[in-house]
Amino acid sequence: MATKSDVLDFIRIYADKMAEHRQELTDYDQAIGDGDHGINMSRGFKAVIEKLPAVYEKNIDEILKTVGMILVSTVGGASGPLYGSAFMKAGAAVKGKGELSNEDIILAFDEAVGGIQFRGKAVEGEKTILDSMIPAIKAIKASIADGKSMAEALVDGEKAAWDGVEYTKTIIATKGRASYLGERSIGHQDPGATSMAYVFQAAKEVAEKVGC
Amino acid sequence: MATKSDVLDFIRIYADKMAEHRQELTDYDQAIGDGDHGINMSRGFKAVIEKLPAVYEKNIDEILKTVGMILVSTVGGASGPLYGSAFMKAGAAVKGKGELSNEDIILAFDEAVGGIQFRGKAVEGEKTILDSMIPAIKAIKASIADGKSMAEALVDGEKAAWDGVEYTKTIIATKGRASYLGERSIGHQDPGATSMAYVFQAAKEVAEKVGC
Amino acid sequence: MLEGIVLAHPEYVARLEGFDVLIRADKKINKVALVSGGGSGHEPAHGGFVGTGMLDAAVAGSVFTSPTPDQVLEAIKAVDTGQGVLLVIKNYTGDIMNFEMAAELAEAEGIEVATVVTNDDVAVEDSLYTTGRRGVAGTVFVHKIAGARAETGASLDEVKAIAQKVIANVRTMGVALKPCTVPAVGKPGFELSEDEMELGIGIHGEPGIERKPLQTADEIVDYLMKRILNDIEFQVGDEVAAMINGAGATPPMELYILNRRVSQILAGKGIRVFKTFVGNYMTSIDMAGASITLLKLDDELKELLLAQADTVGFKMC
Amino acid sequence: MLEGIVLAHPEYVARLEGFDVLIRADKKINKVALVSGGGSGHEPAHGGFVGTGMLDAAVAGSVFTSPTPDQVLEAIKAVDTGQGVLLVIKNYTGDIMNFEMAAELAEAEGIEVATVVTNDDVAVEDSLYTTGRRGVAGTVFVHKIAGARAETGASLDEVKAIAQKVIANVRTMGVALKPCTVPAVGKPGFELSEDEMELGIGIHGEPGIERKPLQTADEIVDYLMKRILNDIEFQVGDEVAAMINGAGATPPMELYILNRRVSQILAGKGIRVFKTFVGNYMTSIDMAGASITLLKLDDELKELLLAQADTVGFKMC
Ligand SMILES: Nc1ncnc2c1ncn2[C@@H]1O[C@H](COP(=O)(O)OP(=O)(O)O)[C@@H](O)[C@H]1O
Ligand SMILES: Nc1ncnc2c1ncn2[C@@H]1O[C@H](COP(=O)(O)OP(=O)(O)O)[C@@H](O)[C@H]1O
Ligand SMILES: [Mg+2]
Ligand SMILES: [Mg+2]
Ligand SMILES: [Mg+2]
Ligand SMILES: [Mg+2]
Q: Pick from A190, B159, D63, D91: most CB atoms within 10 A?
């Protein structure tokens, strides 16, 4: 169960993480991309935080949709449309909800993946955002099915996300800028998969705090 | 007294010196000019040596004139027209002579100075070729007037030339590229004055060899 | 940056108030409009190609970052005259997604939009399973030729078709001798020692496909040309346009030295160089390096290539 | 180098067989002919300015070394049509002496020759007792405007007069952030650490007039502009052409950043920028740096500045 205030908390915590890990994400992107992923994500979430107060009164779905639109119009690059679509689709998935049940949360994640795949046409194993996101959601679903709480499930989810990040080191990129490197992309972790792992870390921290 | 073979010797020895001191002259020119004086002079005298056999049969005046013309058409920069004019005027000064008396040699030097001044419009003390050339010729004249041999006079001449080179370190350049540096030209020796000092060194070596 | 170009060349370009978009100073022209763009740092691309015979608008993102859909949408709206808009997109995941979102939004507003994707960089393997090749300096020929076609009053379909024809016939490969530094990052995108070079680089400071000890200019050209000529078939008597594009910090003298060898190789294969372009067209901030582009020509492309163009960065008198 | 330009642009320039001289591809034009030149390493100067509306011939010396009189003479003979030849000489002892010798030789052969000497570099004190200022990037405006005047069929006196008018009204000053290396020498003309700059540099890799710790782009422009504006009087309402010239390894982006401040300063003084030129016009091999040139305009100069020019390195459509 997540309230609107939990969702807002999640956004704030994630925005802080993007500011904090700006250099780290940029360094990963310099190795196999064009060295701007941290700059892009922190720019986008800085704008989100600035504009968030204007939608405080709105429903969760509107808030998520607004976050998505802000990202689309401030991030640019590949991550802008991808993260933007993810948030917009997540919002659409929970239309009209005042609070989110565990099922709502899982649906929102699934729809977010759908948004990313619609835009990016990637599947797992291509060294992208999806390589931490899809395993994380799978783990969350499994834990919830095992009767764990969302807070516990998110711990498992985050772990799976970081495993996914590790996995990206072992594979060749076939989507995004890193694909231009071919074999040379092996050995490096994917910046987008990394920023996505922080999504699950932020969600876990909120869930631990409110104890849901 | 200098024979045609002495004159040819002088040219060859000087050409060797220009090849040998190419880097040194270029270094001086890098400090206060555009770093090509050694390159220019060695290129010019390499061409002289290549084309010299064609005028072996000619008179001294023709040989000197030809050297001047080769320099003008291969050196470029400031030193090309200056050294070129010097050799051409020196040649004209000894028109028709089969051998050069001491008076002829002095006249040739004087005319060479005239050629350089006609082209370059400089006077002594402007940090140019003239600052080693004019004192050297003065010293030669004085020594000959004192009854010394040309070989002895050229020793004095070379010494005066190097003193002139030293003197160029103490003055501001007002002609040539070094003049753009203003005060910053002080402390550096003039490349053109230096290449001219080697003229007297070469002449001295020939005179010593033939013992005139 | 945009401000810099507008300040310098108000007779060519104007800024679309409130957006990172440059449009022609003479505003809307009654014809199919061409819109392109991408990250900043490629100057004169893309704003420098706005003007007679080339683009109608250029959209600029942050340095090396695709512009966002809202910016592209405004550019489309600013230049559309009801005859449709062609988006010329370089093949990068980010550019494609952002421009496509803009196209969807514009279509929702009733504007006819077509897109083409340039992918001239032979350094990158083209395969169904990857994102394919990058769009690099060859894009300038697409701007030039599709722009000239639009100027003749052709329809959106016709303009798109000629752009596709250029894309099918243009190939590029590049080399870097010194990487570039994105100002916001403050350190180079990759490290190269004095005696190394990076082959198959893109235009965003990304590492290339291979690092080698520095070779002579001729050897470098041999390598690049081999890759290009392996990729597209030429017959004796074929004609090409060649572009020796500077990456930013490469002086004209060095580009001409590269071109010398390019000419030799083409002459050796019986390929005629119809027109050569040497200079900074699609740069990577302050990278030292260059790319070679060949465009295979037919009579139609030749005529359009020579058609008048008057922009800051590309002029055909 | 010459070969490189001819290979790349045979539609613009041809080599005078056996000489380091480029002449117009369309050969002799029945008008006063313009001949310029100097050392190599300044590309696109000077061969890149041969063509319609600018030069008829350019003579190239070794890198940074004035060409020799015999070469200049051949250029003069190749382009003279009996209406006289104007030599545009940059004020360097070497250039002046070599071009003057050529002029004397040409006159001896019955060709009418006039000379002008450009000296736009305000870094250097102009005094009766020195060689005076250097000719640098402002020379390009002399080529452009005198070239346009010649194209109208003006007499040698008239072409010389307009060249003198440009020379009287053009001022330049430059800065280097990284020195250049003459290939034959193999080491830079001066040493600069990462955080130093050299102000008042020439275009031959010579040291400048002052070395300072590196400053911001705006501060550098402030300094250069102050020197220029101190040197030539401007009234509110005056109009200028501005050239932000790259030294070779300076990317367009950085030149536009400099121009931004130039525009601000001129606007602050009520001086109108009639036309701005940004790019590599008069380079110093691979030097990183730039120069700012201002040309004070009147109606006559404006018209000639905008007249058609079609050369490799300078086009006015
Ligand atoms: N088609 C795609 N699907 C999913 N994620 C992608 C795709 N293409 C790229 N990415 C992700 O985007 C990340 C790079 O984002 P960013 O650096 O912000 O954009 P850009 O590559 O345009 O500079 C990559 O690390 C990768 O995870
Ligand atoms: N007007 C002049 N009169 C005499 N000598 C001069 C004059 N101008 C320059 N020089 C000499 O020329 C030398 C430089 O020659 P060089 O480097 O070959 O030519 P450039 O200056 O054209 O590169 C200077 O060191 C100076 O001695
Ligand atoms: Mg990136
Ligand atoms: Mg010199
Ligand atoms: Mg990017
Ligand atoms: Mg020189």
A: A190
